[in-house]
Write a structure and sequence with these properties.
This protein has 238 residues and is mainly beta. It is built from two helices and 16 strands. The longest helix is centred in the first third of the chain and has 20 residues.
């Protein structure tokens, strides 16, 4: 009897382990998304709020892979856009990799689209898989349109000054009133975000200390509270 009870207990334990492993822990909250980007002014834009929930009580390592489809082509036949994925730590040059997701957490992935003012449509498909369970997988598909957008708002937000450029340590930014900018992010030439800071939407002047950055060229991107890219500017750091 004791041997039978032990065998049943072991079987129940194995079943419980298998049930936990096969649980669906990760899922994108909005798996089908569209994004319209401004091809009139910006060469780099970020698509925010690709939210993925982890319902597990433990942190998870996930493997991810980004596939692009139907990207506009240059005259030489190469892709006119470059799309890369950003997790909450950094932006990745490679189309595949792994990330750590905290327990009971809604994780925010981003797409960075380097379109260089090439108009058209394309699709980015991000697949995220639980490294411990290949059946625990989720996919988000983003249909992207880059079009010429001309509006009063788009014209108004062009009035800003960034100086000195080149700079060695302090970057000054002057905005016009009601600029709507709430965040500044600075990206290296390989697309990695190396600096970010909040911007006072009620202020028309701000300073940012970037002396820790390596020498080279950077893209400064200004966004609104809802994640919309309002303007960007290229700087050189001495």
């Amino acid at each position: 009897m004791k041997r039978i009870f032990t065998s049943v207990l072991v079987l129940m334990t194995v079943l419980m382990i298998n049930t936990n492993v096969n649980a669906q822990n990760i899922a994108f909250l909005n798996p089908d998304t569209t994004a319209t980007l401004n091809g009139s002014a910006d060469v780099l834009e970020t698509i925010y709020d690709l939210l993925m929930e982890n319902t597990a009580s433990d942190s998870l390592t996930v493997n991810w892979n980004l596939v692009t489809q139907d990207i506009p082509l240059k005259p030489d036949g190469t892709d006119a856009w470059r799309i890369q994925i950003c997790d909450e730590v950094l932006c990745h040059l490679n189309p595949s990799g792994s990330s750590q997701i905290p327990p009971n957490y809604v994780y925010d992935w981003h797409y960075q689209v380097f379109h260089d003012n090439n108009l058209g449509t394309g699709t980015g498909i991000l697949t995220v898989e639980n490294a411990a369970d290949a059946s625990d997988v989720t996919v988000v598909t983003v249909d992207i349109t880059v079009e010429e957008v001309v509006s009063i708002e788009a014209t108004a937000i062009q009035h800003f000054t960034v100086y000195p450029n080149p700079t060695t340590d302090i970057l000054n930014v002057e905005f016009e009133a009601n600029h709507g900018v709430s965040q500044i992010a600075i990206f290296s030439t390989n697309g990695q975000m190396v600096y970010d800071a909040a911007v006072d939407v009620n202020s028309t002047k701000d300073q940012f200390d970037i002396q820790h950055l390596n020498t080279g060229f950077y893209q400064v991107v200004f966004t609104s509270a809802d994640g919309k890219v309002l303007m960007n500017h290229r700087i050189e750091k001495f």
